[in-house]
Design a protein that fits this description.
- The structure is a single chain.
- The mean pLDDT is 85.
- The chain contains eleven helices and no strands.
- With 303 residues, the protein is mostly helical.
- It folds into two domains: 107 residues, no CATH class; 152 residues, no CATH class.
- Helix content is 69%, strand content 0%.
Length: 303
């Protein structure tokens, strides 16, 4: 193992290529998680609602309870991240192994189902390609180190959260909370930040957006963001320390404003449409992980 690390340290481009291939394959699974996790969550919520209604309101609203017993989706009864195998949502044809090759499989199919020719979303190869490029960049930036391995885990989590938030306006606790606790644990040895800065960062990340949320709600009577956004910023505070939080908030607000204005100008949305803020926090946080110290140093030098 030490010989492999030594070899990769002297040949970062080879290491980056290996990382790209590995991450592209994982990116195919990330697509599965992005698609299936919300369905699994909604089923769990339905079961919890049914249990509550049946236990506490059986006689009063049993018709509602019976109505909720009906499936909320058209997916098989046994449905998780592994089962069933991937198939065309229209004709049900199982996807052959060679069509599951990252990026190339989509290109071989020309973006269509092999049988019914239903269009396959371009998001699938985009996620695979982006995963590969992001992890390849981390390989060059960090080299074959523990920081690279941990940054890879965080990046995969951010890709999942971004995809789900874009689709469902949701940042699942099943992803954010493990990342939060992992950030605190890895910094016990000051991997990315000191333990003190990590703990303060986690608290400050959550409370800063929580304060904005309640200030906005008290002033307007509306909710400007979701609790998942608080937790995601807390994740970056736990991983990178409290010092990067101002950069992340500023960058995410800037990116969100630019994209939002662009969408309004192209008439793809209006000012009343909700915009998921999680992807912008994820992008800003990833940038801060790579260049946060340099950005901080540049800013302080301008004062």
């Amino acid at each position: 193992m030490s010989e492999f690390i030594s070899t990769m340290s002297h040949n970062l481009w080879l290491f980056a290529i290996i990382a790209f291939v590995f991450a592209s394959v994982i990116g195919s699974f990330l697509n599965v998680v992005i698609h299936r996790l919300p369905v699994i969550m909604k089923r769990e919520w339905q079961q919890e609602c049914n249990q509550y209604l049946n236990e506490y309101h059986e006689k009063l609203i049993s018709p509602i309870a019976k109505k909720l017993d009906k499936p909320i989706d058209d997916y098989p009864e046994k449905y998780n991240l592994i089962i069933p195998n991937s198939s065309c949502p229209k004709c049900g044809t199982h996807i052959k192994p060679w069509h599951n090759i990252p990026i190339l499989g989509w290109l071989m199919l020309k973006g269509k189902c092999a049988k019914c020719k239903t269009q396959i979303s371009i998001r699938y190869p985009v996620v695979e390609l982006f995963s590969g490029l992001a992890i390849a960049f981390l390989a060059i930036h960090f080299g074959p180190t523990i920081e690279f391995a941990l940054a890879t885990i965080l990046t995969f989590g951010l890709i999942i959260l971004t995809g789900i938030d874009l689709d469902e306006m949701l940042l699942p606790d099943q992803i954010t909370l493990p990342l939060l606790w992992l950030g605190l644990i890895i910094n016990l040895n000051s991997t990315f930040s000191s333990p003190t800065d990590a703990i303060i960062g986690a608290a400050a990340g959550y409370l800063s957006l929580w304060s904005v949320f309640w200030a906005f709600k008290l002033l307007t009577g509306k909710e400007g963001m979701g609790y998942g956004d608080f937790k995601l910023l807390a994740v970056f505070g736990a991983w990178l320390g409290w010092q990067v939080l101002p950069i992340i908030i500023l960058l995410s607000s800037l990116v969100g404003a630019v994209i939002g204005i662009g969408l309004m100008l192209t008439k793809k949305m209006n000012s009343s449409n909700p915009i998921p803020f999680g992807p912008y926090i994820a992008i800003a946080g990833w940038i801060a992980m790579i260049w946060g110290s340099s950005i901080n140093a540049w800013y302080l030098s301008t004062l």
